[in-house]
């Protein structure tokens, strides 16, 4: 009796140890990484994000998107912030004339450098700024994992391959997330980021007049919204006008993005297909429905997915560097 209980305990401990070891190997980031090296880090970043949002509420959306486009390309390593090069991420198709907020990141970085010279990576600053942008816009808050180091390579061709396009069909979007180590729940919860921010006509005007060669607009688009968008985005226009991603509560981070999908009011094709495509019935539609019914469920899942996205391929230890300027690698 005693012996078998001992054996069981022994295996139990062994299993727990393997489990813990596995966790530490997989995620070397910690919430208190800068506790002693930069004790005021969170206050400094938040103060600058508050300033940026007072100046322009949309900036919260722009900073959140910057973090997403950083993480999908070679992991969250600040590579999206690097200037220059013909094949830089900044010049890649999903990013050029599209990503915003680089100047805000510069301002945050210099405040952080003033307090703790050479200590905090640009990748971590972007992660904290994205979290603060969500919570200051009325969304959930959470403890961010930190300790990422900055990468030295900006790869525009890779960005073109891995960042989802609003014209992608469902299976392509899902596989781009799967390739990044994320799953279907992450696709839907993170798409909820489109509860704030704006998109240019060029990225949805294909839905407004002659959708997929049908000679008619996208039939899943609400007719009132269609008329508004046709006026905003004339066929001979330059495609640079912007429409809000969530018409109901533009700058508020809430679950209305999902309620819009139920009413045919998703702006991008990649938004509306989460509810209206044939593939959605057995995959994403039930998740969308659950976030419509329960805003807390959306917030909880969004936080978990943001943490998973923030954990994509972090550079730690002696990998990478702590950049002095977020725009250039150290010499
Ligand atoms: C599911 C695949 C996704 C696609 C196809 C997609 C596509 C887009 C497009 C085309 C825009 C407008 C860009 C422009 O006008 O130049 C946009 C904006 C935005 N995206 Fe996404 N996105 C996706 C997922 C995400 C994720 C995962 C996040 C963050 C967690 C995110 C956050 C945002 C935000 C906040 C904006 C507004 C930015 C601003 O106003 O500056 N998106 N997205
Ligand atoms: C780091 O700081 C946080 C918040 O101030 C605190 O809760 C935590 O216990 C600290 N961790 C360590 C290891 O000092
Ligand atoms: C940080 O330290 C370096 C030398 O280690 C110095 O050149 C630089 O001016 C310092 N920056 C700030 C903001 O204090
Ligand atoms: C950039 O990404 C492409 C596509 O994966 C790859 O072929 C290329 O080697 C990468 N370039 C650099 C400098 O890492
Ligand atoms: C995605 O991964 C999370 C965390 O492992 C899990 O809770 C969730 O059920 C997964 N979703 C799907 C659709 O497999
Ligand atoms: C719609 O596009 C298709 C394919 O590009 C084209 O053949 C057709 O003439 C267009 N219809 C209209 C009404 O413009
Ligand atoms: C749209 O705006 C960008 C700059 O934001 C500009 O480079 C581009 O030429 C504009 N497009 C057109 C068609 O005017
Ligand atoms: C947003 O939706 C709510 C119902 O969910 C509605 O009462 C409200 O009028 C809508 N606001 C706008 C600006 O569309
Ligand atoms: C998906 O659901 C809609 C509405 O319930 C239905 O009209 C459509 O036929 C379904 N499509 C498939 C492929 O099951
Ligand atoms: C909504 O989701 C939260 C978080 O998962 C859960 O605790 C709560 O019971 C759900 N509420 C309803 C009405 O289902």
From TrEMBL:
Keyword Zinc-finger: no
Single biological process term from Gene Ontology: response to oxidative stress
Domain Plant heme peroxidase family profile: residue ranges: 28-330
InterPro entries in UniProt: Haem_peroxidase, Haem_peroxidase_sf, Peroxidase_pln, Peroxidases_AS, Peroxidases_heam-ligand_BS, Secretory_peroxidase
Catalyzed chemical reaction(s): 2 a phenolic donor + H2O2 = 2 a phenolic radical donor + 2 H2O
Gene: LOC101499424
The protein's name: Peroxidase
EC numbers for this chain: 1.11.1.7
A single GO cellular-component term on record: extracellular region
Cofactor descriptive note: Binds 2 calcium ions per subunit. Binds 1 heme b (iron(II)-protoporphyrin IX) group per subunit.
Transmembrane segments: none
Keyword Secreted assigned: yes
UniProt keyword annotations, A-Z: Calcium, Disulfide bond, Glycoprotein, Heme, Hydrogen peroxide, Iron, Metal-binding, Oxidoreductase, Peroxidase, Secreted, Signal
Gene Ontology molecular function, alphabetical: heme binding; lactoperoxidase activity; metal ion binding
Disulfide bond positions: 38-116, 71-76, 122-326, 201-233
Superkingdom, natural source: Eukaryota
Cofactor entry: Ca(2+); heme b
EC class of the enzyme, as a word: oxidoreductase
Site (Transition state stabilizer): 65
Binding site for substrate: 164
Binding-site residues, Ca(2+) 2: 195, 246, 254
Annotated residues for binding of Ca(2+) 1: 70, 73, 75, 77, 79, 89
Subcellular location: Secreted
Main location: secreted
Span of the signal peptide: 1-27
Active site: 69
Taxonomic source organism: Cicer arietinum (Chickpea)
């Amino acid at each position: 009796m005693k012996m078998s209980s001992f054996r069981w305990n022994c295996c139990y401990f062994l299993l727990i140890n393997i489990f813990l070891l596995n966790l530490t190997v997989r995620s070397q980031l910690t919430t208190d990484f800068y506790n002693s090296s930069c004790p005021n880090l969170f206050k400094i970043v938040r103060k600058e994000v508050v300033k940026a949002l007072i100046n322009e509420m949309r900036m919260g959306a722009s900073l959140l998107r910057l973090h997403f486009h950083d993480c999908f390309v070679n992991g969250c390593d600040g590579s999206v912030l690097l200037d220059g090069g013909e094949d830089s991420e900044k010049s890649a198709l999903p990013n050029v004339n599209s990503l915003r907020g680089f100047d805000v990141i510069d301002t945050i970085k210099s405040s952080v450098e003033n307090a703790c010279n050479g200590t905090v990576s640009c990748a971590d600053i972007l992660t904290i700024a994205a979290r603060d942008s969500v919570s200051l816009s009325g969304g959930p808050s959470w403890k961010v994992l930190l300790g990422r180091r900055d990468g030295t390579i900006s790869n525009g061709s890779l960005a073109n391959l891995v960042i989802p396009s609003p014209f992608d069909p469902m299976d392509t979007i899902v596989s781009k997330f799967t390739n990044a180590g994320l799953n279907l729940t992450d696709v839907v919860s993170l798409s909820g980021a489109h509860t704030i921010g704006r998109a240019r006509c060029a990225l949805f005007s294909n839905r407004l007049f002659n959708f997929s060669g049908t000679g008619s607009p996208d039939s899943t688009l609400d007719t009132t919204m269609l008329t508004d968008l046709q006026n905003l985005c004339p066929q001979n226009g330059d495609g640079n006008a912007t429409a809000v991603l969530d018409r109901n509560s533009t700058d508020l981070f809430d679950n209305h993005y999902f309620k819009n999908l139920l009413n045919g009011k998703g702006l991008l094709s990649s938004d509306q297909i989460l509810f209206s495509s044939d593939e959605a019935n057995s995959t994403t539609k039930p998740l969308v429905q659950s976030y419509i019914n329960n805003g807390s469920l959306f917030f909880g899942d969004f936080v978990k997915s943001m943490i998973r996205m923030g954990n994509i391929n972090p550079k730690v230890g002696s990998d990478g560097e702590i950049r002095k300027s977020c725009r250039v690698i150290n010499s």
